[in-house]
């Protein structure tokens, strides 16, 4: 049966009948146009293309797997996940959370998505592996994806297919460089020479910057090349810089294109009707880096971003028809024979151990087994996550804890470096509900309540309104009456994880392996 959820997205208030694998929406109110942010959740470093009447967007999820999410829209407003470029990037100690290592804040970064001669391409790079990756497919929604990898790791690279069929990559920070790739994009073209095309791409934003120009995305419009970058002047905000040239090798002329609300980093997209937009994102506290669309007009051969230099709240685009459909969704863990084990909305925190999780061992439940000993939640394997979202969101679950072993810890988390969770701890046959906060930078148990039954309901709430960034935790013994536990968590977007907070289901052992817990569902709601 569908579950009724009340959700307030940035564009409208919804009453939804939510079923597994997506949303079927019944609108209680709907504005006539879309509103910014387009997605009130962590979807940073977007790169976008239009193929016919369909738009495709790639983004960054770093240490999460599967990685490099691919999203689709028919109107630039309503997006859904259609796949990922890779299942796992590498089987290293960092990606596998082995020997105290991790890939938090690293993994794969800003991607570039392109379409050329019937093939889709996505490039990315990884500081963790020191390599640049290019994925390609004929079918962006079903795959499969072919992978090419080569060294070194080219920072914030942008793929570009020129009119003559030659393919290039621009990369760098501050000083921007041009490379030519071979025809199959498996590596650099033999004999190619790296060329500096802009010595100081930061210059248009002034001499005093704390972040030099990066995030390159290259386009060609009406015979001119346009290169988008961002910088961050000291004491100022993230700033969009655009350079223009009539030859790829330059000379390049640059100017500040937008400086408002810190909305920056992205590129250009046009509609079939000929309207232009810049897709950008905004650092917005603990919820993460959230996407915006900014209208673009043209003057004297230059893109002019915004309305009177400002990012508008309303857009002349269709209103959203659902709260991030296909990007975040409730899951009852009920599967038909042809259903995937996990919908695309789910990502693992680092590489999972597939033998230690299942949705088939007990029908209608997610089972998480322990397979090794850990001492802290963020180093535990097989934490299954979804994005939180704003302005307010919550997640609720119920766990069968009857098969926990001594020292096991399982529950529902708000995952970031300064994490918090509500869960169950078993100690010498006794079980307790606990709330743990890492707001100080180290995990501290803030509350403990004895538990004398095999099932417990857990809930985590997020309030991102006006960057309030507060998290709250609750438990229930019957699913009806909820009791707050512990202290409020002041959530903080930190660079060690470089990601907005995530809801996470977890189970790990501290004394003996072999225990397991069963999650009956994860129900996500908001207002």
UniProtKB/TrEMBL annotation:
Site label Important for catalytic activity, responsible for pKa modulation of the active site Glu and correct orientation of both the proton donor and substrate, positions: 156
InterPro entries: ConA-like_dom_sf (IPR013320), GH43_C2 (IPR041542), Glyco_hydro_43 (IPR006710), Glyco_hydro_beta-prop_sf (IPR023296), Glycosyl_Hydrlase_43 (IPR051795)
The UniProt record lists the keyword Transcription regulation: no
Domain Beta-xylosidase C-terminal Concanavalin A-like: 338-524
Domain of life: Bacteria
Pfam families named among the record's database cross-references: GH43_C2, Glyco_hydro_43
Residue positions of the active site: 45 (proton acceptor), 214 (proton donor)
Keyword annotations of the record: Glycosidase, Hydrolase, Signal
Gene Ontology biological process terms, A to Z: carbohydrate metabolic process
Molecular function, one GO term: hydrolase activity, hydrolyzing O-glycosyl compounds
Database matches in Gene3D superfamilies: 2.60.120.200, Glycosyl hydrolase domain, family 43 (2.115.10.20)
Signal peptide annotation: 1-29
Family listed: Belongs to the glycosyl hydrolase 43 family.
PANTHER family to which the protein is assigned, alphabetical: BETA-XYLOSIDASE (PTHR42812), BETA-XYLOSIDASE-RELATED (PTHR42812:SF12)
Protein name in UniProt: Beta-xylosidase
Lineage: Bacteria, Pseudomonadati, Bacteroidota, Sphingobacteriia, Sphingobacteriales
